[in-house]
Every structure is written in C-alpha cells, then in structure tokens.
Design goal:
α10 packs parallel to α12 and α12 (409-436) crosses α16 (544-554). The protein is 31% helix and 16% strand. The strands form two sheets. Strands 1, 2, 3, 4, 5, 8, 9, 10, 11, 12, 13, 14, 15 and 16 form a 14-stranded mixed beta sheet that branches. Strands 6-7 form a two-stranded parallel ribbon. It has 562 residues and is α/β, with parallel strands linked by helices. The protein is globular and about 70 Å long. Pfam families: COesterase. Keywords: Signal. This is Neuroligin-4, X-linked.
Length: 562
C-alpha cells in the first residue's frame, strides 16, 4: 500500500462537494431505534442513471459499550441506550487506536482522532420518506469489514455514500486492532480474538436494528478485503457467526491465506513480550492482564513489529484450524464469492524492495517468502522451519522466472509479483472455493482493470487495493483523491457495484447477464471465473501450472520439509 492506494480522508468532503453529489446543511433525517432516536444526513445525487437518487447516512453509531478499563481484553458488551436524547450521527467518531507510524506510512496526510473507545459503525441507506408510504420497503444489507492486517485500518477511508443507489443498505464497521483486539494468555483469562468478537457484535446489532434503517435483517452479506477478506472467511467457519449473515464476499484474502490466523503459542509469546516491556510480566495470567489493563492505551503499542496480532484458534470463535474445519465440512452454508487483483504481490513494491534485477531475483524472492514465513508462520514449509528450504526456493524460482526473458527486469518484477499473488491469495482462494463449492454456490473473480490514468509505472499492474475505489464508486463520484478517472473507469465501477449488489440480493452476481456477461459458478470440475476488465469475460483455469504447484505445497497444509 502506498500513498496512491490509500485515501486521504481529510480531502473527502472537498472532493465530494465538487462532484455530482449535492447536499444542503438543512438536509437531515431522524429515525427511531431501540436505543433512541438517531439523526443522520441526507445526500442527493445527480447524473447517475439509477432509480434511487437520495441516500441517508448515519455515522458513528455505537454498536457496543466502550471497551476500556475492565472491558479491555474482554468480549464486547452491547451498547447502552441514549434515549431520551437524539443521537447525532452526522459525523465519524474516533477510529480504533493503532500505530501512529503506520498511519504516516500508509496514509500520508491522514488525520483523524484515535481512541480505544472505537466500536462504532456507519449506515448508508436508500432514503425513505415515512409520510409517502415507502418506508416499508426493505433492502438487502451489505456489511463491510476493513483490512489492514488486523493492526491498522478504518472504514472512514471508504465512504459508502453512493453504494445504496444500487438498492442495498451498506454498513461499515470498526473493530479493535492490534493488542487491543488480539492479546491472549492462551487460557480463559484472556483467550483473545476480541476484534473478531467485535465483528460478531456488530453483526448482532445489524440483525436487531437494521430494519429501522430500511435493511432486511434476513438478507445480510458480509464483505471485506485482505484482513477483512480473511475475517469474512473466518466468519464462514465460525459457529458463533451462524445465522448472522447469508452471503459472503472475500476480497484479496480468505481463511486459508497465510495471514488469516496466527499460532496461539506465538500469540502468547507476543503477549508475554508486551507484558515484559511494560513491567507486567508475572507467572499468573490474571495478574499480567490486570497490569496490562492499568496501562495507558498508547503504551500498548510499544511492540514495533507489524502483523504480530491476529486471530487464533481459541475453541470458541474458531474451534479448530481453518484447514481442519474446511476438510471436515464444518462451515456456515452460505453462497461465497472470492477474488483478487491481477498483481496483488506488487504490494511489496516499494515497501520492501527497491529493485528486482536478474542478479537479485532469487535474493529478493527468497527475502519475500521468508518475510511472509516469519510474519505469518503457517505457509508452505513445515512448522519447525524458520527459512524456506533451498530446494523449495529452486522450484519457486523456476516457476516464476519469465523464460525466455530472464534478463528483463520488468518481466522479473512481474514474476516476483505473481509468486506472491499466487501463494498468498490466488491459491488459497481456489482451495477455499473448492471446499465450499461442494455444498454451496461459489464464485471466483480476477480484477484486471488498470486505469489509463493510473499514475504508477505500468509494470506494477493492478495491485492490492487498486479495486477498492471501484467497489465504493469513487469514479462515479469523481472522487479524485487517488487519481483522475475516465469513462472506462466509471463503467468498471458500475460493473463491479452491479455484480456485488446482485450477489447481495440474489446470491448470484449475474441472475441475468451483466454488461452481456454471465458469471459461471466455480467448482472442482470446472475452475471457471470472471475476468473483470474493460469487457467482462468468462475465463477458466487461472494460471493452472502455478496453482497446481502451490496446491502441492499446501496439500497437507503441513508444508515442505525438504
């Protein structure tokens, strides 16, 4: 992720006000909930050919009690009522506290208050007028879980103003991140997974309250990218999430991706390391957690390494590893869509690598795979290994050297990107859908559209998160914080929104052809998928040789030991 691939939230209001969106300061709406009245904002759109023209948005609604003091490192508790007051839902509340240097790195110029008190959600819904009698119409609901490696991120940078024009209610949620969401002592004192339980609490809130906002509680689709995508996959597996959603979309990550979960033993080590740094280390879990609860929130960010806080197998939210749950058919029976961008692996540029040249190809790819191994642990090598074996690296290098152009630096960079894309995202998505398709509808896509106005070098291709603006309709809103957009970009955004919202409505992205294309189901016999680019295209057998290679490495999900 670079400055181009993350939004500068401070510019949103300006960008929107200069586009096709028109809003007056007096346009407000009040609805009644079980907690009390909520006042939101009405936005009217012009220039988009959709039956719905007006959207009501309600920002910063608390879905759980503030997880501070004695509630730190505990499951969330339901929010308290605010009646008889009317809750002001016209602005975003604080985002969840996260490493400040990450904010600077990922989101230059981003500025928004952070707090441990952050369990809020935002609702964007087709506006209805109770006096006109249209208030009884209920729309399918889409709940967005943001990414960021379980350590950073916020839905504030993904405003959903335009999405309801496609006939859905959009909910975006925040959840505890980093140590606040995933500290664990490995026992009942602090079992971990609080961030995942936050997501479940938000889904419970949706089930109980979304009808007041025009949403159909029996038609809820969860979707998210990267850590949000793996979160979606984990909810598909979790017995605690059963009945809280009815369809799922996993973007750029699934429950079988190497970054989806961590080892419980490793998580305990990180917790003990944090306790030691803060003077809280004891041989009693309860004393350690009590001490950690006494520390200021900022102190808990003392561990500088990234991606160390993740969900774990706890016997509750996650009763077993994703691999075992998938193999045994223990998952929630809902339609599932999964997809990725063509060059997810280009995420490593320029964050981790300055260049890839013929003389450094092996060194760089070895660095990247070892980086992933040591960050995420459960990948393609045996659990006791701390480095990728040379024999395995030889096989990877052979697979991804762009023969006969082994001295072409640009093609080598693409080969590097493909190796990371396939190993971390594409093959896990194939495996997840292969399991899922035996019992439920499954759909796979590749997002391959690269805007002609993309300012980055062409060899970077279509990177991780390049698809996000299209999912939230930025080209259609002329939201040019990332880049300028042209007519082709607007068409792609309309395609993506139509496909995603169709899936939310029908469990099928193309119940009728969309832009003359029908999206076939994915199954073990027919590895069909949809290629999303200038013209939607049905495709089959995505990089079959490479998928077979990684499948062999993953087969036992125990890893290569040679």
């Amino acid at each position: 992720m670079t400055s181009r691939t993350m939004l500068i939230a401070a510019l949103f209001v300006l960008a929107i006000s200069e586009s096709i969106l028109v809003q007056s300061a007096e346009d407000t709406v009040v609805i009644t909930t079980r907690y009390g009245s909520v006042r939101g904002v009405i936005r009217r759109f012009q220039g988009i050919n959709k039956p719905i023209k007006t959207v009501s948005k309600f920002l910063g609604i608390p879905y759980a009690s503030s997880p501070v003091n004695e509630l730190r490192f505990k499951p969330p508790k339901p929010a308290s009522a605010w009646q008889p007051s009317t809750y002001n839902a016209s602005y975003y509340r604080s985002i969840c506290i996260q490493p400040g240097d990450y904010n600077v790195h990922f989101w230059p110029n981003f500025s928004h208050p952070e707090s441990e008190d952050c369990l809020y959600l935002n609702v964007y819904t087709p506006h209805h007028n109770e006096s006109s009698g249209d208030s009884k119409k209920l729309y399918p609901v889409m709940v967005y879980i943001h990414g960021g490696g379980y350590e950073v991120g916020t839905p504030v940078v993904s405003p959903g103003d335009i999405v309801p024009l496609w006939g859905v209610v959009l909910v975006t949620i925040q959840y505890r991140l980093g140590p606040f969401g995933f500290v664990t002592t490995g026992d009942s004192v602090a079992p971990g997974n609080y961030g995942m339980l936050d997501q479940i609490e938000a889904l419970k809130w949706v089930k109980e309250n979304i009808e007041n906002f025009g949403g159909e509680p029996s038609s809820v689709t969860i979707f998210g990218e990267r850590a949000g995508g793996s979160s979606v996959g984990l909810h598909v597996l979790s017995p605690l999430s059963k009945g809280l959603f009815h369809r799922a979309i996993a973007i750029s990550g699934v429950e079988l991706s190497p970054y989806a979960i961590g080892s419980s033993a490793t998580a305990v080590v990180h917790t003990n390391e944090l306790a030691k740094k803060l003077g809280c280390a004891t041989d009693k879990s309860a004393a350690t957690i009590t001490c950690l609860r006494s520390k200021e929130a900022q102190e808990l960010l003392v561990l500088e390494r990234a991606n160390i806080w993740r969900p774990v197998v706890d016997g509750n939210f996650l009763p077993d590893t994703p691999e075992e749950l998938r193999k045994s058919g223990r998952f929630n029976k809902v339609p599932l869509m999964a997809g990725f961008t063509s060059q997810e692996g280009a995420y490593f540029f320029p964050r981790h690598l300055k260049t890839v040249a013929p003389t450094t190809f092996r060194e760089n790819l070895s660095f990247a795979l070892n980086y992933i191994l040591n960050k995420y642990g459960q990948t393609w090598v045996a659990p006791h290994k701390t480095e990728v074996p040379n024999s395995f690296m030889d096989a990877v290098i052979f697979q991804y050297t762009p023969w006969p152009y082994a001295k072409d630096s640009c093609k080598l960079k693409r080969g590097f990107s493909d190796a990371i894309t396939d190993s971390c995202v594409a093959e896990p998505a194939h495996a997840s859908l292969s399991y899922h398709s035996t019992q439920q509808p499954a759909f796979l896509y590749e997002f391959a559209h690269r805007s002609k106005l993309n300012p980055d070098p062409e060899w970077l291709g279509v990177r991780h998160k390049d698809d996000t603006p299209y999912q939230f309709g930025f080209p259609l809103m002329n939201l040019t914080v990332l880049q300028n957009y042209d007519e082709a970009d607007r068409n792609i955004s309309d395609m993506v929104l139509t496909l995603f919202t169709n899936f939310a409505k029908f469990g099928n992205p193309t119940p009728e052809p969309v832009f003359e294309a029908s999206w076939p189901r994915f199954n073990q016999s027919h590895l069909d998928y949809l290629l999303i680019q200038g013209k939607l295209a049905r495709a089959s057998n995505y990089r079959p040789t490479q998928m077979a290679f990684w499948l062999d490495c993953y087969l036992a999900r125990g890893g290569v030991d040679a």
